[in-house]
Amino acid sequence: MRNRVLVVTGGGDCPGLNAVIRAIVKRSSRERDWEIVGSYEGFNGILREPMELIILDEKKVSGIHVKGGTIIGTTNKGGPFAWPVKNKDGSWAEVDRSDELLRKLQYQNIEATINIGGDGSQTISQQLFEKGCNIIGVPKTIDNDIAGTDFTFGFQTAVEIATDAVDKLVTTAESHNRILILEVMGRDAGWIALHSAVAGGAEICLIPEIPYDIDKILERIHSRICKGRGFVNIVISEGAKPKGGKASGHKSDEVGYHNLKLEGAAMRLMQELKDAGCEEDIRATILGHIQRGGSPNANDRILATQFGVKAFEMVLEKKYGKMVAYRHPNIVSVPIKDAIAESNVVKPDGQLLKTARGIGISMGD
Ligand code: F6P
């Protein structure tokens, strides 16, 4: 009987997931007697009846490293500890199916599970590990907000997409003497905004870590626009908030979706500027899921491939309860519990923040 490894992709998708899957399969094929099995849509595939599992061999993963998304699907709803079930009255409840999951893993002869996902998925990894599951985490998020690793794959691709958008908005802002606001992803961490603001040359960058003051933003605008001439580009994270305020969003009505649905940061800023007396023309662009789609760039393909190879080698070494991490220049393993204990956010004394301020980018404070 061959040793089996279950591969799961959970949470929001991200460029590079397929490159990780391919690397796991390729590395395992260099060892004798290993079989890689994918669970469709996170742990849903193994928990569903009938199960949706797929054998991942070299033929199946051939060439997928250039493809965005994940060939085994993903979900950011529910999970083994909070499985949504419909009550007779039509309302929804959540049940814990983790014991059943462990039994199914055993029944399927799964020696180890590799869970590729963000902080929510790695919290599930830790909970399963504490219940005796042989699990290894691979960090994934375009937001780059997972602690323990310098970078996650997908982030660099998202920054390139956001920077391309800033570049395009700069030329139209300049032609029309306008203020153009670009809203990018970044729930709790402003990395995409900060990187693309520096790379694209925005004048103002607003991130969740630094609540903004509308008067400070106006000051910066008026240092650039005089008598209707001049232009300003603003990059704002979806999770940015005014001083004393909250991130703009609402509770989702999607079953099993626990995150606050962040929406409206750019539109709110536009209104706040007008209310504060700004008379210039303002337009807002929301980049949205474009940042998560499409082919990973070369750096993300490489990082994802390194993560996949390392994850399988951690299975060989039985390094369970650990997460793959990039600590320049090495690919290492760190305890999952340490990685989920905190978030990787932009620090007040961070180098790139200093650089941004150094070239006159206003952070709205
Ligand atoms: O966590 C990554 C992220 O891209 C966040 O920046 C964003 O708020 C969230 O995913 C949106 O995910 P979805 O639309 O899939 O629920």
Concise account of the structure shown:
The protein is of the alpha/beta class and 365 residues long.
How does this model look, in words?
The protein has twelve helices and 15 strands. It is of the alpha/beta class. The chain folds into two domains: 3-153 and 296-339, Rossmann fold, CATH 3.40.50.450; 159-293, Rossmann fold (3-Layer(aba) Sandwich), CATH 3.40.50.460. Helix 1 packs across helix 10 (298-316), helix 6 packs across helix 7 (191-200) and helix 7 runs parallel beside helix 12. The model has no long low-confidence stretch (mean pLDDT 96). The site of 6-O-phosphono-beta-D-fructofuranose has 12 residues, from loops.
Order of helices and strands: EHEHEHEEHEHEHEHEHEEEHEHEEHH
Give helix % range: 25-40%
What gyration radius follows from the Cα positions, in whole Å?
22 Å
Q: What's the overall geometry?
A: elongated
User: What is the first-to-last residue Cα distance?
Assistant: 62 Å
Helix tally equals 12
Strand order of the largest sheet: 3-2-1-6-7-14-15
Q: How many discrete structural domains?
A: 2
**DSSP strand count:** 15
Strand percentage: 15-25%
Mean pLDDT: 96
Q: Main sheet, how many strands, which sense, barrel?
A: 7 strands, mixed
- The CATH topology of the largest domain is given as Rossmann fold
Low-confidence stretches: none
**Helix/strand class:** alpha/beta
Highest CATH level, the class of the largest domain: Alpha Beta
**CATH architecture descriptor text of the largest domain:** 3-Layer(aba) Sandwich
> Which small-molecule ligands are present, each listed once?
6-O-phosphono-beta-D-fructofuranose
